[in-house]
Amino acid sequence: MNGIVLLIALATPASGPADAAVQAALVEHPLSSPSTWAVDRLAELGGRLEKRRGSLKLEKGACGVLDVFPSTPWTIIASRITGDHESGKFEWDIEWANEFGPGNATVRGIYRVRGDRLWLCFTSRRNDETPTDFTTKLYNGRTVLVLRRVK
Length: 151
Fold this sequence. Notes:
The chain is mostly beta strands. The chain has one domain: Porin (Beta Barrel). It is built from 1 helix and 9 strands.
């Protein structure tokens, strides 16, 4: 008897570590998805982390407003982010207007996300290298911000 045997295999979704990786890939990046962060602490000019008030409100594409009291708010008009959901580098093109008139700059920095906390270390001085750690020293032009996600 001549015949053909046809085998059909059905794939069923697996559950486990591979699924977790797929789900993580579907989660939007914390700096490029709409989110609101409250400023918790700030350090600059070699100072210690001190309590501060303010917020970072991001829209889709990581544009938005950083407002740290008593400074003039920055409007983030363009953003470039490299890295993953937990750490990496960013560049923000910013604009502001204060009593001296309008201004603009490019802010280069690094970020780290741990739970509901966002750490930023950045410099806006044109010739400075992008920071490689979350420290600030006297006259190094860096700012460290610690923010808490607003739920």
